[in-house]
Amino acid sequence: xxxxxxxxxxPDRGFKDEIExxxxxxxxxxxxxxxxxxxxxxxxxxxxxxxxxxxxxxxIASAENFGGFSALVLSGDAGRDYKYQSRPDLVxxxxxxxxxxxxxxxxxxxxFIENLTSQIDSKxxxxxxxxxxxxxxxxxxxxxxxxxxxxxxxxxxxLDQFLLNDSKENFPFLxxxxxxxxxxVLCDFEISSVNTYCDxxxxxxANKIINYGESIVSQGDIxxxxxxxxxxxxxxxDAPSTSIFVDANKEVRHNRFVQKYQMRDMSVSEINELxxxxxxxxxxxxxxxxxxxxxVFNNNEN
Length: 302
Fold this sequence. Notes:
The protein has 8 helices and 10 strands. The protein is of the alpha/beta class. It has 2 domains: about 1-105, HAD superfamily/HAD-like (Rossmann fold, 3-Layer(aba) Sandwich), CATH 3.40.50; about 105-300, Rossmann fold, CATH 3.40.50.300.
């Protein structure tokens, strides 16, 4: 550790023995970027290349404010204070998994995205599909962030927000989504009939839709469509598009799958049964799309 910074201020009043002169608005309490700017200056840190790891939405919003990357860990509050509306660039099981990704695997994403953004030209839509737990959401979030660094605005449509409440695992997985609503959202972007877009995500542990906030929509913006079924719905749009298949080895995906459903208090036998259903209903279908996509991103951990 090079240096420790802390904010002594607090916006709320009414506590016993509180120090009155510290009860003031400031620019150093997260998510305000004051202390990050100070650390960047004092320690010669490139904030736009830096990551913040945290368990609260103030941590994630801080990254938006100082221009860096964010990792939400599923330990502690796991982002469920819902105070600030900011989409994380990475969701990791814990701080160790977050650090492991940043140190050992983030460069792979950066290199792929740099190559991708140099070739997408005037494409309106970027469809990111692939098997469950392959890293699609991480790729979509990092792509949006790196496009912003190029002064290109992108919006993410996370398809899991359209999961039907009564969808069953043993049904064909495309039938588990509200395709009518998906088409409506896609068409709104295509005909530029929306002035603002509300970014919704899906918390797979809490089984809850998350509101990441509104953004202004302009004519030349890029739309990133991310989800297991993304490559099956490309025909829903007429505008120029690019397709990406995210691949990861089965063992890595299975480990992530087990971790996810263990957090839902499912037993190992229940998880393995569900994994076998997913393999049958999803993987065999998705593999047929690999040959037809524009890019394949191999997210294989060594």
